[in-house]
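Internal tracking record. Fields below are filled automatically when a chain is submitted to the structure queue. Please do not edit lines marked as system-generated. If the sequence contains nonstandard residues, flag them in the REMARKS field before resubmitting.
Queue: standard
Priority: normal
Entity type: single polypeptide chain
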Amino acid sequence: MSYPPAGPSPWEQSGPEPGDQPGALTSEDRTWALTAHIGSLVAAWFAFGFLAPLVVLLVQGGKSPFVRRHAVESLNFQLSLLIYIVVGGIAAFLLTLVTLGLALVVIIPLAIAIAIGALVVVILATVRASNGEDYRYPLTIRIVS
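SYSTEM-GENERATED OUTPUT FOLLOWS
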């Protein structure tokens, strides 16, 4: 038996395997990025759409810059949407009172269009995350960086 033993030193850091690209996305990174977007849709049914991206950010955000970017983007969009819904809801309520309900003719279709638009951009973000690409939500207040 020879000293030191054959093989890599336990103090050496192992680098990427031959053929691996540095910084390449893993399927786990993509799955967590998808979870940040899709999870917000599930949580939105309970008015807590921001919880899923927040959990992803806290659990995996420090491990992968890709996951962090998607979680932050989704979190900012969900928080912005929550602000818009609260402010818009108060304005819609007051407008409905002032117009004796006539404003509902405009408010209800507008609310439906906003909900469909939000669904579409979340789906677009999910597809981009699945493809390993970044996505910036439109009309988003950048609260978390």
